[in-house]
Amino acid sequence: MTTVGEGLWRELAPQTLARLVRTHGSAQFDLCEDAVQEALLDAHRQWATDPPADPQAWLVATARRRYVDLVRSDARRRDREERTARLSAPVDGAATQSDDALLLLQLCCSPDLPRSQQVALTLRAVAGLSTAQIANAYQVPEATIAQRITRAKRRLAEAGRLQRPETGDPRLAPVLDVLYVMFTEAHHTTTGAPARDADLAAEAIHLARLLRRAVPGSTEVAGLLALMLLTEARHPARVGPGGRLVPLDEQDRSRWDGALVTEGLALLDVVTPGASPGPYLLQACIAGLHAAAADTESTDWAEIHLLYTLLERLTGNPTVTLNRIVAEAMLRGPEAALSALGDLVARHPRLPRADAVRAHLLERSGRGAEAAEVYRAAIAATVNAAEQHHLRDRLRRLGTATG
């Protein structure tokens, strides 16, 4: 009997939605999405006792029937000419089944939408993330994300025909942003249970590979793919028994996936010479320095600090500043980093992970009592179960060392 896991559902849904949108046009995005959701409900009910030989074909056929039903229902309020126009407004250009998900991703990132709506809609439609997961990634209320998605669907419907994106299309930047958030959520899930979403990580890498083939001249696409590969390579050593997170400085690097490391470093060797580095290529270069080092002590922290400084100037992202401060601690010691961290938190008092970094720096400075207090604050501030376990472990070890 065919069994369908979460990963297959996540793969089938966006591909089916892409087929319908490509056939019926952006004006019918809402109806297409509703049809896919109804087809998924049918699949959940029927496949348990009567699984199809080809799940994708079954889902597409069922979604198309559901779409026709929805159009016929809607058509009671419209005249025959409008119905005919709606059913014959395909997306320009052909697409193959293999790149349906990438096409849907690009279409959702239409230049007709503002960046915030592009990203929110694509994360929902392509990645299948919940509004809570998207809100967590961007640190905004769930209601805000829901509103962005609703407005994006409305604007797509008003835009009419969708054009297949070309190389250099302005939607490339939000496509990269979406893939990055997908991959980040996969490796740092909103709840932390599980600590990693393997299916979502695999889909993000798959889409990044497709995008690399579609836009081979983009150093940012190559940088994002290299970053994903080098990050994914650490997974075998990143999660310990019971789903506990293992920090980078404690990981057994012999357990890293050597093939992924080799592929990621080779990609950087190809694209970095002469490149004007963007944010994803800079992050990939940082990951490459970690991957090339035998251990924490032999890591080129001076180069990492420089790259984070460049990234900070380029993005103005306070999380990048936090990472630059961690690198500074490795170069100049924890006390100098604590001073810089205090300045950062004064400007961004709700910055995620700031308490955890401060507690670690205090622990390294030998200020155990202060570190314990900040560890407790960090534990209370995070909803990520895996991160909570890690912080509790640090707090227990600190108590053992100072007790």
Instruction: Please give the count of helices.
Output: 20
Unreliable runs, pLDDT <50, ≥5 residues?
A: 76-98
What integer value in Å does the Rg equal?
23 Å
Q: Work out the helicity level.
A: 55-70%
Order of helices and strands: HHHHHHHHHHHHHHHHHHHH
- Percentage of β-strand residues: under 5%
Shape: globular
Notes on the protein architecture:
The structure is a single chain. With 403 residues, this protein is mostly helical. The protein is built from 20 helices and no strands. The chain has helices at 6-24, 29-46, 55-74, 80-87, 100-108, 115-125, 131-138, 142-159, 172-187, 198-214, 219-233, 235-238, 258-271, 279-292, 301-315, 318-332, 334-347, 354-364, 368-381, 385-402. Helix 5 (100-108) packs antiparallel against helix 6 and helix 6 (115-125) crosses helix 8 (142-159).
Q: What's the layout of helices and strands?
A:
Elements: H1 6-24, H2 29-46, H3 55-74, H4 80-87, H5 100-108, H6 115-125, H7 131-138, H8 142-159, H9 172-187, H10 198-214, H11 219-233, H12 235-238, H13 258-271, H14 279-292, H15 301-315, H16 318-332, H17 334-347, H18 354-364, H19 368-381, H20 385-402
Helix pairs in contact: 1-2, 1-3, 1-5, 1-10, 2-3, 5-6, 6-8, 6-9, 7-8, 9-10, 9-11, 10-11, 11-13, 11-14, 13-14, 14-15, 15-16, 16-17, 17-18, 18-19, 19-20
Please provide a brief summary of the model.
This protein is an all-alpha fold and 403 residues long.
